[in-house]
Prior knowledge:
It is a single chain. The protein is of the alpha/beta class. It folds into 2 domains: 1-33; 39-302, Rossmann fold (3-Layer(aba) Sandwich), CATH 3.40.50. Helix content is 42%, strand content 15%. The protein has an 8-stranded mixed sheet with strand order 1-2-4-3-5-6-7-8, with helices on both faces. The longest helix has 32 residues, at 2-33.
Amino acid sequence: MGSLLCILQKSLHFMILLNKMQLIRQHSEVVMQNNLYHGMTETELDEAYNNTAIVKDFDGLLKKLQARSRALYKKYHWIRDRSYGRKPRQRYDFLSSGIKNSPTYIFIHGGYWTNCNKEDFAFIAQGPHANGMNVILAEYTLAPDATMTEIVNEIGHLIKKIKDDQDFLGVRDSPLYLAGHSAGGHLAALYRSHHAISRVHMISALVDLNPISMCWLQDKLKLTPVEIKLYSPLFHLEKGAPTLVSVGGDELPELIRQSSCYADELVRIDKSVKMFTLPMATHFTILDDLANPDGFLMKQFMTLKKPGTPKIY
Length: 313
């Protein structure tokens, strides 16, 4: 009888202990769920990376940008939809400055790797074009039709094709500048050490894919742990082309943090990196400044240089 009682007491003690462990695990899971990234819950993280949600009428804004872009296509003679691969979206548009040996500003549009087209943002070409640059508007395959790995590789194919096309475009001795907005800024950052790139312009760029993989964007992107590690520029800091990291002063705090953190870390090993915050600019109005021939972004970008060298034009 005594031994049976002892067994029952031990069994009861084990069940109580097991129950406590389950409660601790459940509590830990709740804590982790409510503290996904930098103290943010999943809902807060979704809001922190939703640029369009804070625009009162984003559809109306996009239509205005598209109208401005159509007007710029009509204003100049472009080479349209030059292919750099077999997929339908592997295309680029080219606008010549008409100036011999002038640099070529390659612009990669944003849209969180899942939305938008190069035609939506053609209006930005006015800024670099008025400053004596040829302009290329790059398109790429969007998720979920392409993985992040495939999207990143497409930009490499784009750069190679542009180099191969330099005689066709009449820009054999043209330095190549790689620029991008938002997701496009992320893609530009990944190629700042490419031997063909002379300068890089990151605009409201995303440099850490960790929070992207934890919010609403993951549904389409399906980022893998390997992709997060390989394709987060923040984790691959190295010397490269002179780079302007720019962001709007009125953007979402997470967008400002990503740009500022990246610039602060990168400038420690590469003094040709420059950070610029455009006061009162949002994620989209910063593009108005880029399109302005006398805008602050173009002025800042034109002053980039390798340490110890004269200003590059």
